[in-house]
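>> received
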Amino acid sequence: MPLSLVVHTLAELGFEKCAELPWGSPIFEGTIGVRALRLAAEHASRPREIGAILGQRARWLEALTSARPELKASRCIGYLAISARSFEELLELGILGVPAPVFGGPEGLSVLSSLESREAR
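>> returned
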């Protein structure tokens, strides 16, 4: 459904724009019956944009792990890869991983992620 139609329909229902998500998508507040609601409206292309970003980051992680066999990493699955090295061993190699037990995995393995924080830029 086009974003313009969503915005128009919400306005007709008495909803008002109250904020925006960090990437600019509007958030609306209003009521339907006795229920107060807050709704985020997304443009239809947003899932494709996110998919492209995650795909690019997965390719970056795949390139990193392929170029560094000492990381003993699996192929990237989604935006994650599994390393047969412990968290501590990865730190010694200058790589920050997440210990696999955090995710319910076995000791001695780590998870590598292609996600980044805004502070890391």
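>> The longest strand covers residues 26-32.
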